[in-house]
Structure formats: C-alpha cells, structure tokens
C-alpha cells in the first residue's frame, strides 16, 4: 500500500482530549466522525477506507475513541493530550506548531522531532497544535486503491487458504488480542490438557508458541480483557468441571501470573466481560450449562471479584454476551439456552442487579450468540448459531429491547460459534460462523441492511468450535482465526487485499 501515514505516538499518564476553540485560533478541525469503542486498527481502517475524504485521525487507546477529520480543511487546530495516536493519510507536507501560550516547550523524542512539543501541567500533558496539511497531488501511482474504495456499495472480500498452527490434541477456544504490548494481535488459545497458551505474533506472519498458564482440564471458554486496570489484557477462562473462573493477570510482555480462581454456578460453559454496574471496572458473567443459570461476578477493584450472584435462565446456557440492548446505557445480558432452543435477555436494573429472563425462540441447540446492529438502525440485534438446525437466527431489535421473530439463514453443518464484524469495511456488520460438522467457516457478507448476505465457505481444520476476528497482518483487512477442536490446531484465514 502506498498511503502515507505519519504517526505521532505519545505515551503518558493522562488521556483526555478536547477538540474545540483555542484562544486566538479560529479554525477548528472539521471532525467529521467520532467513533467510540473501536481499536486503533479499526480507527486506521475507517480512515483508509473512507474513499479519500478523511485525512487524519486521532485515536485514544484508553477510552477507545476514534476521531476522524475531513480533508476539506487545510489546517486544523487541536488540543490533545497524550495516550493518543495522531495519523495523517496522503499528505505530502505536514507542519505542526505549538500554540504560543504553552508554558514550557520540550521536544518529543518519539517521532517527528522537529514538529511536536508538549507542555506539562500537573501531570497532564497537553498539546496545543496547529497542523497545516497539504494533500498529496504528485505521483498518481500513489493514489492507492485502498483509499478510493467506495463505501456506498457492497464490497466483496475474499480470504486466503488457511494457515494452521498445531498447538495440542484438542483445542476449545481462541481469541485474537495483543497481549505482548507490541500492537500486533496475538492468538490466545485454551486447550487440553489443561493449558492456556498464546501464539505470539512475530509480525512477519510467523507465530511463536508460548504456554502461559496451567488451568484445570476442560477449560472451555476464554475472554481477554484488562480486569485490573493496568492497560494490559488479562486472560479469563472457565473450567466447566470444577465450576470455576480462572483469572491470569498479564504482568509484562505477555507473561502471566495466576490463575486466581472464583466459584460460579455448575458447569460454566461461556463467559463475557463488561462493566455491568457502571463503576468503570469490568465485571464477569458466566453461562452455567448444568446450573441453567448465569453467574455475575462484580469487580471490586484491581481484578478482585465479589462472590457471584446467580440468575436462572433457560436450559443449558451455552453462550453469553453482555451488551446494552435497550439503549439505557446499562449493560444487559444475552444468553443462548441450548436446551430450551431460546435466546434470553436479562435487563440491567441499574442497581447491580438484573431483571427477569425474557426469551425468544430460535433454532435447535443454539450454541453461540453474538450481538450487533446488522440492519443499521442503531439498535443492537441478536445473531444465534443453531447447532442442530444448521442455521443462523437473526432477531432484529424493535427499538425498546424487544425483538422481532427470528429470520433464519442456512449455513454449514453444526454451526458452533458465531461473531459479527464488519469484515469488508463497508459499515455493515457481517457474520462469521464456524461449522463444526462441515470443517469449514461461513463468511456472510451483509449486502444491504441485514436482510441478504453473500455466503462463502472456507475449509478449516477438523471440528472448528470457536471463531474470532483480529487484525493479524495489520493490513486494515480483518482476518479470521479458528480453534479446531478435533485437530488441536488454530487456523488463520487472512483476508485478501481487494
Ligand atoms: C474519550 O476521551 C475523550 C477526551 O476526554 C472524550 O472527549 C470522549 O468523550 C471519551 N470517550 C468516551 C467514550 O468516553
Ligand atoms: C488574542 O488576540 C487578541 C488580538 O489579536 C489579543 O488582544 C489577545 O490578548 C489574544 N488573546 C490571547 C489569549 O492570547
Ligand atoms: C466495546 O467493544 C468490546 C469488544 O468489541 C465489547 O465487548 C464491549 O461490550 C464494548 N463496550 C461498549 C461500551 O460498547
Ligand atoms: C465519499 O463518501 C462520502 C459519504 O461517505 C460522500 O459524501 C462523498 O461524496 C464520497 N466522495 C467520493 C469522492 O466518492
Ligand atoms: C493544574 O494546573 C492548572 C494550571 O496550572 C491549575 O489551574 C489547576 O488548578 C491544576 N489542577 C490541579 C488538580 O492541580
Ligand atoms: C507448539 O507446541 C506444541 C507442544 O509443545 C507442539 O506440539 C507444536 O508443534 C508447537 N507448534 C508450533 C507452531 O510451534
Ligand atoms: C519486556 O520487554 C522489554 C523490551 O523488549 C524488555 O526490556 C524487558 O526485559 C521485558 N520484560 C520481561 C519481563 O520479559
Ligand atoms: C490496588 O492496587 C494498588 C496498587 O497496587 C493498591 O495501592 C490498592 O490498594 C489496590 N486496591 C485494592 C482495592 O486492592
Ligand atoms: C464470599 O462468601 C464467603 C462464604 O461463602 C465469605 O466468607 C466471603 O467473605 C465472601 N466474600 C465476599 C467478597 O463477599
Ligand atoms: C434493584 O432494582 C429492581 C428494579 O427496580 C428492584 O426490584 C430491586 O429491589 C432493586 N434491588 C436492590 C438491591 O436495590
Ligand atoms: C432493508 O432492505 C429491504 C430491501 O432493500 C427493505 O425492504 C427494508 O425496508 C429495509 N429495512 C430497513 C430497516 O431499512
Ligand atoms: C460479488 C458476489 O459474489 N456477489 C454475489 C452475492 O450473492 C448474490 C446472490 O447469491 C449473487 O447474485 C452475487 O453475484
């Protein structure tokens, strides 16, 4: 790719930003898009795939906020603080100067030394920048196709053949997250016997094998999330034989301490992590297969958790997601009840408790549930993989957190795990499902508003049971990773550049 990105990477204590009027600087950036809760890579990709109309971004890793700027302006004034990444696209000349009102100037030594300065105000580093930009006009060959990709139409995307990594005899679950702190997605896997491992992304397409921790046998599900607020993602797994949650804390560079165990209900089969009581500390919810229940563990600080609270749901819950389903700014719980063939929702009461379990019929043996706005009406919808029916159910949100009857789509045999993600950068959520009985993965590209999909299947290993999306090769095209239970391997499907 030929696009030019200049990074000014800044790291320090605070993380606030305001874009707004600064004294005597009248022109303020036309900040055309503000997107919350996305990764730095997703932010980059939004800019790169914006058909050339966006020229700069400012990304805040701590609160996962992405700011995108329109290229109609030739200069912008920013007040921004550290812990953000500032990047330009297709600019031939950029000059940055600090607002004269800054108290103390000091050279930044990370990148672009001559242009960037900062001032120190009681431990908060604030930048006042004036950025003058010049759109690159020379060298037509550098007008990269990636920047001109239309967002209006459906974007077809394809994936390369799988690359596999054998890790064990049997493999239950995978996640793709950077745990080593080098900004490259690593692969975290739970396998038997009794291990949680990471495949460390070396950056050149090669993954290195590294065992992290021993856990009890039959640890089946995992989540990777910073639960002790040290900006390093921790690993949480559920052991469905000993009825525990195990937390492994990321110490440094992907080395882990623990596990620390917490009791939950019977046979925790799945988990999800999010701040359910709005105290800025992520909590844990497990789906307890034999308990016909979910357990809620409240984070009481530094990654220590309260005793669990149990809520009854349907029979044999197999998958759980935490999401605000009714737009009241509180996280609700969505659970796939495999034994009842329903999907259930527990709304957050707002006082650290959850209300009764409302359920909706889906297909046979729903093994996996995902949530996302597939019809682009700004309301989260529910997508379920029905193991026995070989279908996906999509339940569209009516707007108040109640749902329409399922719409079903046929997929492969034994759909076991589903995720929703915008794979082709067209601002529509696509659906990826691992078909355990067919040894393949179906990628359903959303053609309009969640009512028609282009389905393509890609072969993977034996008995795929877990699927995740990650930016593996850092090319702005999200990739798919799969845990093959039967082969004990991880498959990676890299997305082709269009
Ligand atoms: C992230 O931080 C910026 C600067 O403080 C703020 O403007 C923005 O609202 C924050 N985003 C969220 C989701 O809190
Ligand atoms: C802004 O500019 C005006 C006139 O140019 C000047 O009088 C004023 O002191 C300036 N304000 C600041 C805060 O620098
Ligand atoms: C942020 O995104 C993560 C991962 O996509 C999700 O689990 C979480 O619920 C989201 N949080 C908010 C506040 O939307
Ligand atoms: C880019 O997309 C925006 C909307 O997303 C549209 O308004 C604009 O006309 C497009 N520009 C080009 C050059 O296609
Ligand atoms: C931080 O510094 C500014 C300017 O020096 C001052 O006005 C403010 O009161 C200080 N804030 C704190 C919390 O010390
Ligand atoms: C990872 O380690 C396992 C067990 O030590 C070994 O069998 C496997 O071949 C290794 N995989 C890779 C990709 O190095
Ligand atoms: C972590 O990585 C840094 C930089 O590569 C290195 O200096 C440090 O020793 C590493 N720490 C551990 C615990 O491996
Ligand atoms: C959290 O950790 C910090 C630093 O290690 C410590 O000062 C603080 O007391 C801990 N808080 C709790 C609630 O454990
Ligand atoms: C959890 O429950 C045990 C007894 O079952 C009790 O001893 C302990 O204090 C409780 N812990 C918390 C954090 O409430
Ligand atoms: C929490 O709110 C619900 C619904 O408003 C109420 O029924 C319940 O008693 C409350 N629980 C506590 C502990 O306040
Ligand atoms: C979705 O698209 C279909 C076909 O284009 C249309 O009939 C339907 O009204 C659309 N639904 C929404 C919610 O936009
Ligand atoms: C690009 C592409 O493959 N588009 C296909 C999507 O699916 C519809 C319906 O199956 C086909 O008509 C398109 O050709």
UniProtKB/TrEMBL annotation:
Keywords: Signal. The lineage of its organism: Eukaryota, Metazoa, Spiralia, Gnathifera, Rotifera. It comes from the Eukaryota. This is Uncharacterized protein. PANTHER family: SENSOR KINASE-RELATED. InterPro entries: FG-GAP (IPR013517), Integrin_alpha_N (IPR028994). It comes from Adineta ricciae (Rotifer). Pfam families: FG-GAP_3. Residues 1-16 form the signal peptide. The keyword Signal applies.
């Amino acid at each position: 790719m030929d696009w030019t990105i200049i990074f000014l990477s800044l790291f320090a204590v605070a993380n606030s930003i305001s874009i707004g009027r600064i004294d005597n600087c009248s022109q303020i950036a036309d900040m055309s898009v503000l997107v919350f809760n996305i990764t730095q890579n997703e932010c980059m990709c939004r800019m790169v795939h914006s058909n050339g109309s966006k020229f700069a971004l400012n990304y805040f890793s701590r609160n996962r906020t992405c700011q995108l700027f329109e290229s109609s302006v030739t200069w912008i004034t920013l007040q921004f603080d550290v812990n953000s990444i500032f990047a330009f696209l297709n600019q031939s000349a950029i000059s940055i100067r600090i607002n004269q009102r800054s108290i103390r100037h000091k050279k930044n030594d990370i990148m672009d030394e001559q242009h960037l300065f900062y001032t120190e105000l009681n431990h908060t580093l604030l930048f006042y920048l004036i950025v003058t930009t010049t759109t690159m006009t020379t060298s037509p060959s550098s007008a990269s196709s990636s920047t001109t990709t239309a967002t209006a139409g459906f974007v077809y995307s394809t994936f390369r053949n799988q690359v596999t990594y054998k890790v064990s005899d049997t493999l239950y679950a995978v996640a793709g997250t950077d745990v080593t702190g080098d900004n490259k997605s690593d692969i975290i896997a739970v396998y038997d016997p009794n291990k949680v491992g990471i495949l460390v992304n070396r950056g050149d397409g090669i993954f290195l094998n590294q065992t992290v921790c021993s856990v009890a046998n039959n640890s089946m599900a995992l989540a990777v999330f910073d639960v002790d607020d040290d900006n390093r993602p921790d690993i949480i797994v559920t052991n469905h034989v000993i009825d525990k949650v195990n937390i492994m804390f990321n110490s440094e560079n992907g080395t882990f301490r623990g596990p620390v165990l917490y009791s939950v209900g019977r046979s925790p089969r799945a988990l999800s992590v999010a701040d359910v009581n709005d105290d800025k500390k992520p909590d844990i919810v497990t789906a307890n297969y034999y308990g016909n229940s979910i357990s809620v563990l409240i984070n009481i600080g530094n990654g220590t958790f309260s005793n669990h609270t149990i809520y009854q749901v349907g029979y044999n819950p197999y998958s759980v997601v935490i999401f605000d389903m009714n737009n009241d700014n509180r996280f609700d719980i969505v659970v796939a009840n495999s034994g009842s063939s329903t999907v259930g929702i527990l709304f957050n009461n707002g006082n650290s408790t959850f209300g009764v379990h409302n359920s909706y019929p889906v297909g046979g043996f729903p093994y996996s549930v995902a949530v996302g706005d597939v019809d682009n009406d700004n309301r989260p919808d529910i997508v379920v993989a029905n193991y026995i029916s070989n279908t996906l159910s999509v339940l569209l949100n009516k707007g108040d957190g109640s749902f329409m009857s399922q719409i079903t789509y046929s997929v492969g045999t034994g759909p076991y795990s589903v995720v929703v993600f915008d794979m082709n950068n067209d601002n529509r959520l696509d659906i990826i499902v691992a078909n355990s009985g067919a040894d393949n993965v179906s990628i359903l590209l959303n053609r309009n508003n969640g009512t028609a999909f282009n389905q393509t299947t890609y072969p993977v290993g034996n008995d795929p049971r877990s699927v995740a999306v990650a930016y593996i090769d850092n090319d702005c095209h999200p990739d798919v990773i799969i845990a093959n239970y039967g082969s004990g391997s991880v498959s990676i499907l890299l997305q082709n550049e269009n």
